[in-house]
Write a structure and sequence with these properties.
By secondary structure, the chain is α/β, with parallel strands linked by helices. It has a single domain, classed as Thiolase/Chalcone synthase (Peroxisomal Thiolase, Chain A, domain 1, 3-Layer(aba) Sandwich). Helices cover 32% and strands 17% of the residues. Helix 3 crosses helix 7 (151-159), helix 8 (175-188) crosses helix 14 (353-367) and helix 11 crosses helix 12 (316-330). It is globular, with a radius of gyration of 20 Å.
């Protein structure tokens, strides 16, 4: 069966809008958190988010949005975009250029696109309010396309003239990891030669703040300490938005084009907790099973793993659950395998998280480093027995795992491998 490789990356994130900027932030443990000016009211306990830099998408009229160079979006296309779709469109342009794909290689029956996004709560709210206040016919004609969960793939497939497989995934914080896994399957089974995998979120107040009612967001007012997975005083996650795009290609296409891959995607596994609609299984049962399925699918063992990019969002319950899953699966190798959560730097991207962190894994494999887990002052006792790396290490990992978990107890583990000669 075909081998599958990552040949292009596109990043619009809180820690950088290019692969080089992202790598520098990961190496230097430079975070993207800041106090949000829209959260300063006394009745709002949450103060910190991780904003996307250089874009301004607060205006209700997308024609007033500020889009940095080198990106340019036609006026008629802006009308159907959410901020997440805009970020994804720019990220896909970046990934196509990074992979050195021609227009013909982007638009053909052998190239597809899978995406994940929660849609745009802000645009949906404005549209529904306008419908009730001014009448249904006064709503923007493309408001529904810009606001519902499929907005990212709707816009990208139309704009880039994608003719292969396309769909969206809605498993919350596991969604873009699911998109990556099923995109891998499309190529592995010979259905497609190339797949774009996209994760994107608005990252604005309307996307993030509702999680406060779940007691899921950090109340820490210090941007440098609000997101601290695995720390004894972690108290919730910091929300972020943006987009990450990965280009997956078959070995045949890589050889034909003479492409230099970032990494090989070995395979993946998934499983469900069967426990609670919003809270992780206390023993990490579903995530442990997803990791074991990934091991079985790829033929690796715990002895082969060098680094795990953990899902750990900085919530006490979720981080502890993942630690138990890691110990259960890694066994005697738990104290050796490097583990970190890059959400300490980026914040939690919700359905963007899986794709974004898969992109970080690809960078680490190609450029030879293991990103540290920042902002830990005192390790949570729940992490005992694990090798939580607190500083970035300039070592070459060979096999890397990326974990993602979402509402309903959805769990995904993707396995990546370094490519000899990649640089």
């Amino acid at each position: 069966m075909p081998r599958v490789f990552i040949t292009g990356l596109g990043f619009i994130t809180s820690i950088g809008n290019t692969a080089d900027a992202v790598e520098q932030s990961l190496r230097e443990l430079r975070h993207g958190m800041a106090r949000h000016p829209g959260l300063e009211a006394e009745n709002i306990p949450v103060k910190v988010t991780a904003p996307v830099r250089d874009f301004q998408t607060d205006s209700e009229d997308p024609e007033d949005w500020v889009i940095p160079a080198p990106y340019a979006i036609k006026r008629e296309q802006l009308r159907s975009l959410s901020p997440s779709a805009l970020y994804a469109m720019c990220g896909l342009q970046q990934a196509i250029a990074d992979a050195k794909l021609s227009p013909e290689e982007v638009s053909n029956e052998d190239t597809g696109l899978y995406a994940a996004s929660a849609g745009s709560p802000a645009i949906m709210t404005r549209m529904v309010n306008r419908m009730h206040q001014q009448g249904v016919m006064r709503c923007p004609p493309l408001g529904i396309v810009a606001s519902i969960a499929g907005t990212v793939q709707f816009n990208l497939v139309a704009y880039f003239k994608i003719k292969g497989a396309s769909t969206g995934f809605t498993s919350a914080c596991a969604a873009s990891a699911h998109a990556l896994g099923f995109a891998f399957d499309e190529i592995k089974l010979g259905r497609q030669k190339r797949m774009f995998v996209v994760g994107a979120e608005d990252g604005n107040i309307e996307t993030i703040l509702p999680f406060a009612a779940m007691r899921a967001l950090s109340l820490n007012t210090d941007p440098a300490m609000a997101s601290r997975p695995f720390d004894k005083k972690h108290d919730g996650f910091v929300g972020t938005g943006g987009a990450t795009v990965l280009v997956l290609e078959s070995e045949e296409e890589v050889m034909r084009r003479g492409a230099t891959p970032y990494a090989e995607v070995l395979g993946w596994g998934q499983a469900s907790d069967g426990h609670n609609v919003a809270i992780s299984h206390p023993e990490g049962a579903g995530l442990a099973l997803a990791m074991r399925h990934a091991f079985k699918a790829t033929g690796i063992t715990a002895a082969d793993v060098d680094y795990i990019n953990a899902h750990a969002t900085s919530t006490p319950i979720g981080d502890a659950s993942e630690c138990k899953a890691l110990r259960a699966v890694l066994g005697e190798h738990a104290s050796r395998v490097a583990v970190s959560s890059t959400k300490a730097l980026t914040g939690h991207g919700l359905s963007l998280a899986g794709a974004m962190e898969a992109g970080f894994c690809a960078l680490a494999l190609k450029r030879g480093f293991i990103p540290g887990s920042a902002h830990i002052t005192e390790l949570d006792p729940a992490c005992d027995g694990l090798n939580i790396v607190r500083t970035t290490e300039s070592v070459q990992p060979r096999v890397v795992l990326n974990n993602s978990s979402g509402f309903g107890g959805a769990n995904v583990c993707v396995v990546f491998k370094a490519v000899s000669g990649a640089r």
